[in-house]
Amino acid sequence: MLPTDPIANLQTLIRCPSVTPAEGGALSALETMLTPLGFAVERVMATDEDTPDIENLYARLGGDGPHLMFAGHTDVVPVGDAGAWTHPPFAAEIAGGEMFGRGAVDMKGGIACFIAAIARHVEKNGAPKGSVSFLITGDEEGPAINGTIKLLQWAAAKGEHWDACVVGEPTNPDRLSDMIKIGRRGSLSGKITVNGVQGHAAYPHLADNPVRGILQLTQALLDPPFDQGTADFQPSNLEVTSVDVGNPATNVIPAKATASFNIRFNDTWTAETLQAEIAGRLQRAAADTRLRPGREPVSYQLAWAERPSHVFLTRNNALIDSLSGAIEKVTGQMPKLSTTGGTSDARYIKDYCPVVEFGLVGQTMHMVDERVAVADLETLTRIYETFIERWFDNAVL
Questions:
Q1: Angstrom distance (rounded) from CA 324 to CA 338
Q2: Cα 138 from Cα 132, distance rounded (Å)
Q3: Which residues lie below 8 Å from residue 16, measured CB to CB, with a gap of 6+?
Q4: Rounded CA gap, 251 and 245, in Å?
Q5: Which residues pair with 192 in a beta bridge?
Q6: Measured between alpha carbons, how far apart are the two ends of the chain, in Å?
Q7: E-assigned strands of the chain?
Q8: pLDDT of the chain along its 397 residues, tens only?
Q9: Catalytic: 244?
Q10: What is the three-class DSSP state of 84?
């Protein structure tokens, strides 16, 4: 039997305990579903120093013509306290019209629905008018080193080329017709270390309190705003995520203070121009002596986290219009085109082809009792099936 039922597909996938980096049987289940449809399935093991080995899956159906990719991940986050779940986290039980299980919406549900959609398409119409491929990683919820990025490189090296991609992340805030992600803000992280001189709190003239310096530098990161936003993106926003001196004593001036930060930035900036802006702000703030009268400029180091995520925006009418039209046809509602939220593996795919994201309602992702409305699985399958038909009709190469 072809895997045309998204409910059965998802139950099979949830029952595979694929907590990163474990494959947990999830890729084997996908191979079992895709092979009867005619997909050529390849399992790709990726390795890197100091990170877990990850098994990934690439499957392709079709030959010449437009090539549509569906991308996603079968790995899931840990369940937390399994005893706090209403239903066992890997049982895929249905109660009150909802299916409970880790990965139900993030994002085994999206994969289950797209497989059901292409199965229905094949059952009704035969093979597509070009090619459909699945690019599935087991490392999205982990370091993201041995997953999508390496699977894309592997596939491209063997001659694969894609014309469009849908990532099945749970993009909808409240209902299935809410939102398509057509881009993502960039993400850049760093750490500031301020060097002081340790001493007794009663004798501050013999010490140099680094807390005074870290206050000056973090204030410079928070004000003024970096921008007012653009036509497609909300304003860039920096958050100081930790401040620490590692000092348990109340009468000791610490020797060092650190502050970590993350900024989600729009297309006003590149990672490089933003780094230059932040470095300039810190340099100017270090010379400010209002909190440290009579002192030399603040002594500090700035370290950047590796692999910043770059901002991107997809402008591809065949892809966006086909998906928007499918959503409207099935639900009666036109979705919002959005660039909000965090990062996803779309940040890697955008270097190979136009990419958008659309999946289930994400309210319970990563939570205890992660769950999906069973009715939404059928609706999303119908949306994907309609989209597949429309995209192959609209694709102009």
A1: 12
A2: 20
A3: 24, 25, 26, 28, 29, 74, 90
A4: 13
A5: 259, 302
A6: 34
A7: 40-48, 51-62, 67-73, 94-95, 98-100, 131-137, 164-167, 179-181, 183-184, 186-195, 199-200, 237-244, 252-253, 256-265, 299-304, 312-313, 336-338, 355-357, 371-373
A8: 799 999 999 999 999 999 999 999 999 999 999 999 999 999 999 999 989 999 999 999 998 899 999 999 999 999 999 999 999 999 999 999 999 999 999 999 999 999 999 999 999 999 898 999 999 999 999 999 999 999 999 999 999 999 999 999 999 999 999 999 999 999 999 999 999 999 999 999 999 999 999 999 999 999 999 999 999 999 999 999 999 999 999 999 999 999 999 999 999 999 999 999 999 999 999 999 889 999 999 999 999 998 899 999 999 999 999 999 999 999 999 999 999 998 899 999 999 999 999 999 999 999 999 999 999 999 999 999 999 999 999 885 4
A9: no
A10: helix
Which phi and psi (to 5°) does residue 317 adopt?
-65, -40
Do 180 and 358 touch, CB atoms closer than 8 A?
A: yes
- Find the catalytic residue in 5, 139, 140, 385: 140
The encoded tokens of residue 89 equal: 């986290």
Number of H helices, E strands in the chain: 9, 19
Q: Which run of H or E residues covers position 360? A: none
Selected catalytic residue, list 75, 163, 178, 389: 75
Hunting for tokens 């301020």 — which residue is that?
194
- Across-strand partners of 237? 264
One-letter identity of residue 6? P
Burial (CB count <10 Å: 0-12, 13-18, 19+), residue 30: buried
Catalytic (active site) residue 351:
no
* pTM of the entire predicted model: 0.91
